[in-house]
Amino acid sequence: MNMRSILRAAAVAGLVCCGPMMPSVAADALTYGSGPNAFSLATGSPGELGLLKLLGETFSAKQQASLKWVKAGTGQSLKLLREQQVDMVMVHAPGGEEKAIAEGWATQRTLIGSNEFYIVGPANDPAGIAAAGNGAEAYRRIARSGARFVSRGDNSGTHQKEMQIWAAAGVKPEGTWYIVTREFMTASLKRADAEGAYFMTDSSTWVAERSNAPGLRILMRGDKALVNTYHALAAAEGATPGRETALRFIRFVASEEGQRIIRDYGKERYGEALYNDAAYARRFVD
After folding, report:
1. Which CATH number, 3.40.190.10, 1.10.3570.10, 3.40.50.300, 3.20.20.80, labels domain 3-114+229-284?
2. 8 A C-beta contact, residue 32 and residue 66
3. Contacts of range 122-127, beta carbons closer than 8 Å, 24 or more positions apart
4. Is 202 in a helix, a strand, or coil?
5. Given this chain, do its domains 3-114+229-284 and 116-226 carry the same CATH topology?
6. What is the pLDDT of residue 25?
7. pLDDT digits (tens, 9 = 90+) for 14-31
8. What pLDDT sits at residue 21?
9. Range 47-54 contact pairs with CB under 8 angstroms and sequence separation of 24 or more
């Protein structure tokens, strides 16, 4: 057993206490680009759907950089940033982002784009949510009917938004009808299809993966409360080794070239873009 394996096993067993093991995070990451200016980024959907790969490779060609993507939902991404295990994040939880800035362990919060959430479900719509006026009313109808609902349950930005809607609906979701996956978006969407259940998916995942969920339909969309704004945040100055390259990447993503990549991504393959740019997203930022 090598030293890294010994340390990891000891940490799991609670035998040693040590700081963030950034190499172990990086070892599990995908790398885009091959330049000497390395930085790490934690995010979920933009990485899972390929947008981050295109942004990273375009940036790498200009800046001799290599981007390591750590796949994590918003809650876990912010935790990794706080623990100085990544140089930056792309997330969608405004409250958590603002708290991170206020506490000083995140900087350079930059609006980069948006998508929205759809509530999807079986075509026969047993809870009748297609007639609901907003997301909260849709959730109340689901709870009253006892129809199955799939939740990621992972403290991701999606899960946090879901819980906000349950709170607005005055419902504490629990019982056999409420199925918690603790999986990422695509896996949870497929589980909802298999269960004939309702699910709140981001529009980007729906456009890219709807063929893998043939039993589901969009039943609720257009509620402003379901718009999903993405921000990039960097580690505090001096906190991580790739922070300065991460700052350059944030500036690139916010530039006209980066924004064009975002608003065009997916059009050729799916016939529509998977994300909206920051100019569109800005109307939904308080």
Report:
1. 3.40.190.10
2. yes
3. 122/196, 122/197, 122/198, 122/215, 122/216, 122/217, 123/215, 123/216, 123/217, 125/217, 125/219, 127/198
4. strand
5. yes
6. 54
7. 333 333 333 345 445 799
8. 37
9. 47/71, 48/184, 48/185, 48/186, 48/205, 49/204, 49/205, 49/208, 49/266, 49/274, 50/265, 51/261, 51/262, 51/265, 51/274, 51/275, 52/90, 54/261, 54/265
Q: Are 75 and 50 in contact (CB under 8 A)?
A: no
Architecture of domain 116-226: 3-Layer(aba) Sandwich (3.40)
**Domain boundaries in the chain?**
3-114+229-284, 116-226
Helix/strand/coil for 72: coil
Distance between start and end Cα atoms, the chain: 53
Residue 240 dihedral angles phi and psi, to the nearest 5°? -140, 155
Weakly modelled stretches of the chain, pLDDT under 50: 1-24, 26-27
Dig out the tokens for 110 from the structure.
């930059």
Residue 165 tokens, joined:
């809607």
137: amino acid identity, one letter? E
Looking at residue 213, its amino acid is A
